[in-house]
Amino acid sequence: MLRIYAIWIVLILGAICSAPLRALEFDNGKVQIHGFATQGIVSTTDNNFYGDSSNSISFNFREIGINASYRPRPDLQFSSQVIQLDAGNVNEKGLLLDYALVDYTAYASETTQFGVRLGRVKNPFGLYTPTRDVAFTRPSIILPQSIYFDKARSLALSSDGVGIYLNREGSLGAINIDMVVGNANVDRGSEATFLRKDEPGKMESDKPSRLIRIMYITPDDRLRLAFSAANLDLKYNARSHEADPNLFEHLDPKIISAQYSNEKWELTAEYSQMKSSITRNFAPNFSNVIEGYYVQGSYQLTPSLQAVARYDASFNNKSDRDGKKLSAATGLPAHTFFAKDWMLGLRYDVTPTFMVRGEWHHIDGTGWLSTLDNTNPRAMERKWDMLMLMGSWRF
Hints:
Layout: H1 2-16, E1 24-26, E2 31-44, E3 58-73, E4 76-87, E5 95-108, E6 112-122, H2 153-157, E7 158-170, E8 173-184, H3 188-195, E9 202-217, E10 223-237, E11 246-261, E12 265-280, E13 286-300, E14 305-315, H4 324-330, E15 338-351, E16 354-365, E17 383-394
Antiparallel strand pairs: 1-2, 2-3, 2-17, 3-4, 4-5, 5-6, 6-7, 7-8, 8-9, 9-10, 10-11, 11-12, 12-13, 13-14, 14-15, 15-16, 16-17
């Protein structure tokens, strides 16, 4: 019943907001508060995504968040965001702290900005990670799962530590450099991604992670090119009765990103390779290179209506794209080690503060499905379709 109420809340808020609603502001704009509420529904021909969607309709797709910022002086800002997320059985329940940080601009001129962020900071990774939570800033209902896997959302989203940024503008364009060093946030979805099930122990950072993104933007702001890289070390601390009490995971992802925007259309592509190494006490060690990429285009049909299309592919081992070698080694179906997704979608801005979206996916493979929603991988179907609908409101 609460799911039905959430849907109606989003629809009613969108209906009554026929004019732009500004953020709440206090103290002459020094304090600003923004919020958003998103409710989606998912139906799949086979397999589960965001809840029990297989040959059914799942309402377990909800994002409700509020963020606030306080700027006591031009070079100092405090900001934070809390979100209540429902994504089937994958996410942690209750309120989640997405970020909470202090941002100090140590140097600023007309062409250069240098600063430091402390706290729970957003990871500078790819094109969409820093803004992935707000539906209005995403290119589709769900991001390309080859790069931005929802089953390990918290791990990719933020780190507890320090970030350093440098922005430099010149006649040839702008260079933005962002670096973060800190402990990764590992939730139950991230743990199940590596262990393939929800174990009683706990996975956490083994040592501080290191991330960097370098982005170039042309003077007309139409072309963006970026390179992202990271090093993450995780450890799993098992309970005493588990057979293998220690597991160490090392991840070394790299992403190349490109985006070109025009008045009515936008073309985006990203390519990723991630070295993954697992070390265990009482089982063979494992190492491979995970590969993912997508090509995406969008076109503004009218000022309020946008169409988007995407091909998204991921492979758990780039030298074993059909998954047969990994299947022989693990006993799992080959299709659990890859996924190829064709997507078509529409976005309609009912008002500047309320948006509805719909998209259809045709997927070959189950590589980005979580075992928390699909407890028996051997029962999953290789080829399946998914329909998603979503309404989102913001202020």
